[in-house]
Amino acid sequence: MPLLYSVLLLLLFYLLLVGEFLLPTGGLMGFAAVAALISMLVIAFSHSMAAGVTMSIIVLISSPILMFGLVRIWPHTPIGRRMLNRRPGELASPPTARTTRSGIPLDKLVGRTGIAKSDLLPSGMILIDGEKLDACSIGMPIEAGHSVIVTRFVAGRIQVRRLTEEEQQSAATDSIGDSMVVPQSPPSLEQSLESLDFD
């Protein structure tokens, strides 16, 4: 008779373990399952050493298999769907790349220049192409109003440094140089002959 109680407690242990996974009990069924398991082992060993060892081996083999199966089906249960906030079989969507308001990915801003709208100590606001963006200075702090250049995009943060005077002049020359240079045609043969003095 005690062996029958042990088998019934083993079945109760499995039932409570499944209930812990499928129902929001806050751990109460898990605690009851552990109590049923201990009681089952005590009764089995009190019956005989062979019965106790046999029941222990059954628990050691069947429990991991049951736990693995419960972990696989848990996302498809009502409580699993509610906690994961997604439908069964729906994979978590990959994180989307952060972009500016105009749709430019932030990692594509590397090498672009802008203006510090606030003091970067080291974090602050910069202005690139008319858009305000959060940025972090590398090295020394940057005062508001100074030109900056984006050096890299790491861990979701734009990192900038202050432009040197040479880089500012070079950027200004590159931006207006082509429009200011007016190509001149070479002098004609008649103009060249007129410029010569044969006297």
Automatic annotation (TrEMBL):
Residues 167-199 are annotated as: Disordered. GO terms for cellular component: membrane. Keywords: Membrane, Transmembrane, Transmembrane helix. It is found in: Membrane. The keyword Membrane applies. It is a multi-pass membrane protein. It comes from the Bacteria. The lineage of its organism: Bacteria, Pseudomonadati, Planctomycetota, Planctomycetia, Pirellulales. It comes from Rubripirellula lacrimiformis. Residues 107-162 form the NfeD-like C-terminal domain. This is NfeD-like C-terminal domain-containing protein. InterPro entries: Membrane_assoc_protease (IPR052165), NA-bd_OB-fold (IPR012340), NfeD-like_C (IPR002810). The chain crosses the membrane at residues 6-23, 28-47, 53-74. Residues 187-199 have a biased composition (Low complexity).
